[in-house]
Amino acid sequence: MPAIEFPAELQKSIQESGPVDLVVGITGTAELDALRAKTRVSLNGTSARTVIAFAGDGAPQAITSSEERVRFATYPMPSVGSSLAIWADVSAAQRSILALAAAWQARACVVIHGDLAALDAETIRLLTDPALQGQCDLVMPDYPHGKYEGLMNKGILAPLSRALYGKRLHFPLAGEFCAGANVLMKLAEDGGARDRNEQQLLWPANAVAISGGRLGAAAVNVRHAAQADNVELSAVLSEFAGSLFQEAEVCAAQWQRVRGSQPVPHYGNLIFPQADEHAVDPKPMVESFVFGSRNLEEVWRLVLPPATMLELKRLARLNAEQFRMPDALWARIIYDFALAHRMRRVSRSHVLGALTPLYLGWVASYTQEVRGATAQEADQRIEQLARAYEEQKPYFVSRWRWPERVADGG
After folding, report:
1. In this structure, is residue 241 part of a structural domain?
2. Do 102 and 215 lie in a common domain?
3. CATH number at residue 197
4. Same domain for 224 and 136
């Protein structure tokens, strides 16, 4: 993507004010008076020179605060160019905030979701202290989550990111994170090598991991409303999984050298939800899986090897209560779909659409396995899945066929 440029008036204000300690960026618009009030509480007690940045409706500008240590600034909100994008606008705002922080020569930049739920003193402290004190280059969030929440992240995004890039983080794509000064521009410009016709999301942890940066995780005890509630599952998979598959293609030379994974330092204590969650009915999801096995067999055969197809045929004969998808099988399926996404023997939209009933099959299996488990016990079940992704990674590497990729210019 091209370098982000700010209007002359804003650049002049940045030059006149000089470097700051911290930029707190909101990924969306905000009402200035309300933001001032919330900031006064969340930054109480800090002596850091701070800029609060939010997307403005008008021309970008710097707004001087009555408190000399705090400034407010609006940044230009880039257009994502797609009405179907769910997270692309968030990634675009995150990049603008990071570029603004780099222009301000900030020591650290914390990005906050547009709903402002994480704009509180404890969350800001946990996210920013490790970066400001030089302990981490990037601090990602750990959110409280029920056992049936965030299943696309648990089943695909987090374990695939962990296996490829070698860092044990629960949320590689998040509404909050804090970046240190030395990675600000790297993250702001991340995506420059991608296909200009595709909207690429920002995966900050993956980008920092492959460059050898230091990562950490902080407890962010807030719950954001799901952005994809009224969006078709296939569209959600297409944006999130498709973006991560594209990331894997661009970064293949780096992740093929990664072996295993390492834990990252954690800051703060996560508060798991205590209320019992209603059990999920697996029958409709298993029915979708079986329907897909009949109607998408031709596409699946172009993506998956014969041994996997045999296992899927066996699963399709089971009733809902018996249905269980082995972790190794699921990991290999995701790896094969990532490879098919790269090879383009089938259009990418067809590849990602064909993944949907398989994902529903995995969800049906997982939800039955954790039906009587606590949130912490369900987390251990996801840890087993993550290890399976790591164990199956040599399978992915062997099927990637790197020399062919170089030869055909892919």
Report:
1. no
2. yes
3. 3.90.550
4. yes
Residues 12, 92, single domain; the answer is: yes
What is the chain's pLDDT, residue by residue, as a tens digit (410 residues)?
Answer: 445 667 677 777 788 778 999 999 999 888 888 888 888 888 876 778 999 999 876 555 556 554 568 888 888 876 665 545 779 989 999 999 999 999 999 999 999 999 999 999 999 999 999 999 999 999 999 999 889 999 999 999 999 999 999 999 999 999 999 999 999 999 998 754 444 445 589 999 999 999 999 999 999 999 887 766 667 999 999 999 999 999 999 999 999 999 999 999 999 998 877 666 778 899 999 999 999 999 999 999 999 999 999 999 999 999 999 999 999 999 999 999 999 999 988 899 999 999 999 999 999 999 999 998 888 899 999 999 999 999 999 999 999 864 344 333 33
For the chain, the domain total comes to 2
> What range defines the domain where residue 291 resides?
283-407
Q: Is 271 inside a domain boundary? A: no
Pairing verdict, β 108-113 and 22-29 = parallel
The answer to whether residues 193 and 333 belong to one domain is no
* Cβ contacts of 33 within 8 Å, gap of 6 or more: none
CA count, 13 A, side-chain hemisphere, 386: 26
Residue 212 CB neighbours (<10 A): 8
Q: Which segments of 87-232 does DSSP mark as H helices, in order?
A: 88-103, 121-132, 151-152, 158-165, 184-189, 204-210
> What is the C-alpha separation between 372 and 225, in angstroms, rounded?
25
Q: Report how far residue 387's alpha carbon sits from residue 331's, in angstroms, rounded to the nearest whole number.
A: 10
From residue 221, alpha-carbon distances to 23, 52, 115, 273 in Å are: 21, 21, 14, 10
In a domain, residue 158? The reply is yes
Same domain as 157, residue 86: yes
Q: Give the max Cα distance, the chain.
A: 70
Residues 223 and 287 in one domain: no
